[in-house]
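STRUCTURE:
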């Protein structure tokens, strides 16, 4: 007995456990074609959010489709240790226990960190099961587990000995909250409202002043010079002069440098080499003193020579120093100012430029093969426009700062003895190198000091496609699964992760890491805002699945996610997914409540419906293959939805279902079951739970006969002309129903319809089963040929053929004509407005692709509306 309503909560847990117990998610190398995907490893601190839902739904669709295609599909899950985020979580936990990180040894802190990871890490991987993710859980990897760590150390050492990795003193991006350096890609720049302060410096030994403009008055205390342009006539008389730094009266030189922009501010630039990248370069050219007045945490130190600022935050000092500058008559003016501010991607703290000794990867030496691979489509991007973004970054690539001032992570495999460094995979190897280099064979491990820093988290994840298959250990695995088939990720980490993985693939495998990269868009709300905790516009992913079912959520996510475009999330789409599940369930119940009479012949209209649906399904399968190859998954789902809801449920079932409480013939029943079964297979990658449940309800299954383990249906032969004929017949029925609705006729009231003699009409009605179909679902008493317009009828056009419905009521033709003419004027006005918008080159060039496509669809729909109204006017 089929329950009257579909209950996703009961179904989902049952089938996921079943699939897992059958081993469908696990993969081992065999004779089949491999199809492998590595999951973009979520942070160990993470919980499921809408971006994860989109990304992992897409990967699951591709994996399930590959399985149905008979491939050996392997989806490797895992987690990223997320140095900055995890260390912050652990420090917060310790603080709540009254423990300071500074009171612990490194080993003590790491013990707490591992304890936290075991207790709270990996929540997101458990949550992915609720979504239906067909991950090979037996292969779950962690960027700090033994295999991945070994790969990290091996590659660090290899790069160092190849001369592609080095240690250098350079200006870096410093996060004062996380207390670590950041790579350029981990700094997010955006315009922010601030102020620009005009401050005057007295020329030493005179009453003259020179005025500079700065956005950071707190760094005045670290000034080493004032710079002006060599050709600026305003300052030529200051050659060889010196100025006094306000408040502290430090004497600094006035220098001349081409870098200075004469048009910015006053044309005079304060130079603070310790706290600005460009100032540092000027300082090197002029051999200026480097005065670092900020501590690592962004507070002022004693080098600023103002004791009452020591220990205060940089922003508090900014406020206070402005007051002091004003009181000392050194503040000329303050103006509102908008400028680009860099913030830490992880902590949102304003980043400080800082001079620091760090480890770097020489990216220019790795970039060339990785750039060529993408530009020649050896690694193919979807959508293609990301190639230009990638090209620009790769051609302007900067060295990658890979050291981080943290404890949680891979400790840099470099050991120091006096002024020498020894890079090795193990401490024992480093000791061997030190003994050989120094000739001192009495050296012990305690004599060496390992680098305190850890490696950037991305240094482990750039090896992900190789390290999850143990590139440096299990050769059979890596040879079988690598290169992986596709990477599904967000465009926002194209540099942080995608580009680096491609570089590492060519560096250590001399081969691409994946065939394709599919970039998803951002999940945004209906106002196009990025979803975030701060805005409170991101729904709870788990609650969403509990309310609408995982299949409903998957449908809602995918149906609104154009390839590469942003997803404008609307809960109505998720509700539509839930209703789709209910529609499928009701179709199942309809069939299962029918009685089969083996003595019945198959009606003509049923034979027609079966042949039409089979052929149209074959046409759809051809279209779907193209969609899958181009990663047009949203379009694929919409196509399937339209076919199942419209063609199968609304038309096919209407044609073949017997009259109320009447039995069905066995041929129709069996063919319908076969078609329903194939539709389950086609829909399964997108909505796995409802399809598995219906699959097993359709008929008894043997052991291992699961929908997930089935085979993707093959497209059969089809006759487009025949399919088109049935579509024409559907249009006739729709127009008859429109007449019923318009004139208030009951659906069950049989009507008499006349068909005007024409070649097209004769051809249509000669197709076996079409006449019977129109009579049955149009609820007609008869279809009668005519050469003239019968009295007492209302006419309509279907294509070029004319039909007349007999009505027992008078029609006010003039009123009807007036109404149609008003509708026609409105439709023409609408088309003109859309044409005007599409004629605007600026709109077409700048609007998102999907917005322009929507306007073009509106234009086509508007023109079709005009055609229909004009045909109706002709028939009056």
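SEQUENCE:
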């Amino acid at each position: 007995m089929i329950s009257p309503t579909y209950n996703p909560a009961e179904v989902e847990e049952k089938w996921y456990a079943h699939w897992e117990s059958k081993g469908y998610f696990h993969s081992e190398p065999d004779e089949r074609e491999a199809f492998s995907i590595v999951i973009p490893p979520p942070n160990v601190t993470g919980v499921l959010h809408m971006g994860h839902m989109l990304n992992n739904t897409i990967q699951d669709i591709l994996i399930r489709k590959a399985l149905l295609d008979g491939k050996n599909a392997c989806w490797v899950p895992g987690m990223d240790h997320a140095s900055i985020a995890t260390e912050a979580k652990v420090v917060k936990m310790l603080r709540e226990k009254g423990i300071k990180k500074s009171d612990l040894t490194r080993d003590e802190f790491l013990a707490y960190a591992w304890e936290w990871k075991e207790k709270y890490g990996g929540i997101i991987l458990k949550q992915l099961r609720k979504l239906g993710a067909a991950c090979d859980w037996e292969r779950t990897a962690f960027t700090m587990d033994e295999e991945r760590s070994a790969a990290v150390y091996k590659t660090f050492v290899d790069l160092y000995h190849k001369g592609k990795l080095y240690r250098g003193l350079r200006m870096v991006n410093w996060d004062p909250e996380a207390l670590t350096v950041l790579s350029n890609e981990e700094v997010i720049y955006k315009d922010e409202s601030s102020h620009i302060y005009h401050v005057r410096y007295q020329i030493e030994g005179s009453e003259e002043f020179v005025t500079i403009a700065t956005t950071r008055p707190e760094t005045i205390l670290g000034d080493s010079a004032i710079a002006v342009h060599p050709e600026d006539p305003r300052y030529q008389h200051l050659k060889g002069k010196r100025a006094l730094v306000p408040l502290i009266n430090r004497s600094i030189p006035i220098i001349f440098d081409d870098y200075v922009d004469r048009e910015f501010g006053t044309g005079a630039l304060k130079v603070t080499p310790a706290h600005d990248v460009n100032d540092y370069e000027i300082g090197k050219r002029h051999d200026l003193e480097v005065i670092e007045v900020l501590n690592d945490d962004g507070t002022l130190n004693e080098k600023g020579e103002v004791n009452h600022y020591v220990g205060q935050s940089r922003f508090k000092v900014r406020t206070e120093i402005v007051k002091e500058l004003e009181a000392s008559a050194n503040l000329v003016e303050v103006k509102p100012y908008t400028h680009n501010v860099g913030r830490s991607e992880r902590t949102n703290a304003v980043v400080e430029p800082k001079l620091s000794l760090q480890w770097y990867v020489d990216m220019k030496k790795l970039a060339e093969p990785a750039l060529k691979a993408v530009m020649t489509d050896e690694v193919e991007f979807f959508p293609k426009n990301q190639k230009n973004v990638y090209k620009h970054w790769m051609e302007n690539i900067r060295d990658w700062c890979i050291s981080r001032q943290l404890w949680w992570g891979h400790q840099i495999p470099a050991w120091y003895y006096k002024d020498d460094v020894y890079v090795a995979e193990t401490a024992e190897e480093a000791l061997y190198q030190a003994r050989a280099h120094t000739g001192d064979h009495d050296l012990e491990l305690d004599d060496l000091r390992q680098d305190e820093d850890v490696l950037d988290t991305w240094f482990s994840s750039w090896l992900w496609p190789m390290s999850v298959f143990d590139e440096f250990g299990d050769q059979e695995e890596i040879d079988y699964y690598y290169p992986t088939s596709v990477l599904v990720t967000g465009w926002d980490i194209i540099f942080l992760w995608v580009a680096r993985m491609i570089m590492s693939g060519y560096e250590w495998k001399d081969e691409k890491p994946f065939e394709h990269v599919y970039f998803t868009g951002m999940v945004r709300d209906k106002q196009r805002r990025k979803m975030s905790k701060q805005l409170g516009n991101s729904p709870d992913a788990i609650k969403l699945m509990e309310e609408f079912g995982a299949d409903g959520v998957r449908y809602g996510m995918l149906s609104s996610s154009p390839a590469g475009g942003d997803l404008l999330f609307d809960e109505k789409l998720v509700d539509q997914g839930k209703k789709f599940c209910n529609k499928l369930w009701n179709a199942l119940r309809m069939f299962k409540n029918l009685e089969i009479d083996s003595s019945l012949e198959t009606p003509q209209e049923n034979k027609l419906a079966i042949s039409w649906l089979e052929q149209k399904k074959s046409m759809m399968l051809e279209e779907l293959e193209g969609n899958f190859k181009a990663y047009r998954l949203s379009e694929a789902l919409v196509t399937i939805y339209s076919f199942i809801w419209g063609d199968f449920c609304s038309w096919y079932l209407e044609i073949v279902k017997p009259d109320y409480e009447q039995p069905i013939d066995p041929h129709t029943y069996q063919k319908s079951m076969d078609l329903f079964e194939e539709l389950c297979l086609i829909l399964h990658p997108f909505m796995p739970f409802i399809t598995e449940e219906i699959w097993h309800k359709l008929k008894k299954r043997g052991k291992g006969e699961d929908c997930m383990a089935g085979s993707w249906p093959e497209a059969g032969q089809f006759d487009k002309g025949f399919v088109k004929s049935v579509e024409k017949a559907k249009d006739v029925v729709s127009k008859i129903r429109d007449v019923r609705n318009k004139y208030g006729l009951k659906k069950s009231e049989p009507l008499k319809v006349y068909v005007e003699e024409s070649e097209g009409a004769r051809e249509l009605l000669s197709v076996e089963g079409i006449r019977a179909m129109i009579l049955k679902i149009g609820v007609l008493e008869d279809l009668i040929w005519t050469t003239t317009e019968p009295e007492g009828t209302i006419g309509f056009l279907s294509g070029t053929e004319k039909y007349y419905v007999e009505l027992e009521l008078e029609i006010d033709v003039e009123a009807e004509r007036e109404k149609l003419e008003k509708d026609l004027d409105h439709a023409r006005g609408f088309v003109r407005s859309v044409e005007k918008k599409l004629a605007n080159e600026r709109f077409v060039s700048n609007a998102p692709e999907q917005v322009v496509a929507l306007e073009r669809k509106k234009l086509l729909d508007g023109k079709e509306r005009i055609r229909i109204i004009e045909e109706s006017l002709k028939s009056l």
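REMARK: The domain at 186-352 is CATH 3.90.740.10 (Isoleucyl-tRNA Synthetase; domain 2).
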